[in-house]
């Protein structure tokens, strides 16, 4: 908890559980400007990619160049004309809303546990502070196999199956339809990133064929003290690529390279794409996984759906050899994705009292 004794906010005056209170320096709008007219993250039109993939190399080349620029300068961009029907989103949102409105005992029937990372959860810690949110996680392939332990060298894996609630009965179908549509888009985006690094379009297919993608339904309730808490504390996404839709309420903020927090302009017709830690490693820091956070508000609840596109758990991730040369040595030791994920999951589940495992822990010291 981030309330110190010399602060004006006294614990007994808090309208919320102190476990949610963020340290003063990380609270929303503290010291860092948030202006409406500030340059926002780039919006890239995917029409040439989807409509004329093989016929218009020049148009495709322009999209690839925009992706490269956005990935270098921001680590974040939005895409429009992405081919995913918004009606599918309407359905997921309607079903998710019914689910999150259920009494807590109902939701806890599909509760995530320390052993099973899928299902409903309302106690996630990011940076060891409780997030003001409820989530429902499911694996796009139906199940996830994770190594039994981060520390063990044995290859023992545990298979975790999706936990679907009986109620609302259509949640599963709407989520699965959504997952298939976004999965296609995610593969296209990985191809674009591959081209943007000067690699063949299918370079990353070997990692993603047996992917371990998961989808999260994020529900951020109204909050009586939005200035003291965060929906999600500052963090970087640890996987490959995040493909996220948010509703019109807004609240996602990205930390620009100069340290300013920039609100991502909410567009229902757009996906927010975010470079994860693994592309940072593959690209040997050409692309960066950028810190972001979610601010909540007093008057409106908010809903977002990230698709975390992650490679197979067996993947060992290291800087791509053909991108390296005598001026650009590998900056990371190889990382086993399954183990890295297992460790991150355990840290999100409870306050381990230590700094989260970050990709930087694998950096090769110069
Ligand atoms: O809700 C959002 O817009 C972002 C959520 C997020 O960053 C995450 O779940 O990793
Ligand atoms: Fe995130």
What is the gist of this entry?
The chain has helices at 47-51, 57-73, 86-100, 104-107, 171-196, 205-208, 277-282, 337-349, and strands at residues 43-45, 76-80, 119-121, 125-126, 129-130, 134-139, 143-147, 157-161, 214-220, 232-235, 241-246, 252-255, 261-263, 271-275, 292-294, 302-309, 316-317, 335-336.
Structural features, described:
The chain is α+β, with helices and mostly antiparallel strands and 366 residues long. 25% of the residues lie in helices and 20% in strands. The protein has eight helices and 18 strands. It has helices spanning 47-51, 57-73, 86-100, 104-107, 171-196, 205-208, 277-282, 337-349; strands spanning 43-45, 76-80, 119-121, 125-126, 129-130, 134-139, 143-147, 157-161, 214-220, 232-235, 241-246, 252-255, 261-263, 271-275, 292-294, 302-309, 316-317, 335-336. The strands form five sheets. Strands 1-2-14-11-16-9-6-3 form an eight-stranded mixed sheet. A hairpin with a 5-residue loop joins strand 12 (252-255) and strand 13 (261-263). Helix 2 packs across helix 5 and helix 3 packs across helix 5. It is globular. The structure holds 2-oxoglutaric acid and fe (ii) ion. 2-oxoglutaric acid binds next to strand 9, strand 11, strand 15 and strand 16.
How would you characterize the largest beta sheet? Answer: 8 strands, mixed
Quick check: average pLDDT? 88
Helical coverage, percent range: 10-25%
Strand fraction: 15-25%
Structural class category: alpha+beta
Summarize the helix and strand pattern as letters: EHHEHHEEEEEEHHEEEEEEHEEEEH
Q: Please report the total strand number as a whole number.
A: 18
- Principal-axes geometry comes out as globular
Distance between the termini: 36 Å
Number of helical elements: 8
Poorly predicted sequence stretches spanning 5 or more consecutive residues = none
The Cα radius of gyration reads 20 Å
Q: Report strand order across the widest sheet.
A: 1-2-14-11-16-9-6-3
């Amino acid at each position: 908890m981030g309330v110190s004794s010399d602060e004006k906010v006294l614990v007994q005056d808090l309208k919320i559980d102190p476990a949610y209170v963020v340290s003063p320096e990380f609270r929303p709008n503290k010291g860092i400007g948030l202006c409406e007219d500030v340059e926002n993250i780039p919006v890239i039109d995917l029409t040439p990619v989807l409509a004329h993939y093989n016929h218009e190399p020049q148009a495709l080349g322009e999209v690839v160049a925009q992706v490269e620029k956005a990935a270098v300068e921001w680590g974040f961009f939005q895409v429009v004309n992405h081919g995913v029907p918004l009606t599918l989103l309407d359905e997921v949102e309607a079903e998710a809303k019914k689910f999150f409105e259920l009494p807590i005992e109902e939701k806890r029937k599909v509760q995530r546990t320390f052993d099973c990372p899928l299902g409903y959860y309302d106690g996630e810690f990011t940076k060891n502070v409780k997030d003001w949110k409820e989530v429902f996680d499911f694996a796009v392939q139906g199940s996830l196999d994770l190594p039994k332990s981060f520390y063990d060298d044995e290859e023992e894996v545990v298979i975790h199956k999706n936990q679907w609630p009986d109620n609302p009965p259509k949640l599963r179908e709407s989520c699965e339809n959504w997952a298939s549509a976004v999965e296609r888009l995610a593969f296209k985006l990985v191809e674009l990133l591959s081209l943007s690094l000067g690699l063949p379009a299918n370079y990353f297919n070997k990692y993603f064929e047996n992917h371990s993608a998961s989808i999260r339904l994020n529900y951020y309730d109204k909050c009586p003290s939005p200035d003291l808490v965060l929906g999600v504390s500052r963090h970087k996404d640890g996987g490959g690529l995040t493909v996220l839709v948010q509703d019109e309420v807004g609240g996602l903020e990205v930390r620009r390279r100069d340290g300013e927090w920039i609100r991502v302009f909410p567009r229902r017709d757009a996906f927010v794409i975010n470079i994860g830690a693994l592309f940072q490693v593959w690209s040997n820091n050409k692309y960066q996984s950028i810190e972001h956070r979610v601010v909540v508000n007093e008057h409106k609840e908010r809903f977002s759906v990230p698709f975390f596109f992650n490679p197979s758990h067996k993947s060992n991730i290291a800087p791509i050899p053909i991108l390296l040369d005598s001026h650009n040595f590998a900056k990371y030791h190889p990382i086993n994705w399954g183990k890295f994920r297992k460790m991150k999951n355990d840290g999100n589940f409870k306050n381990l009292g230590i700094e989260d495992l970050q990709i930087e822990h694998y950096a090769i010291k110069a």
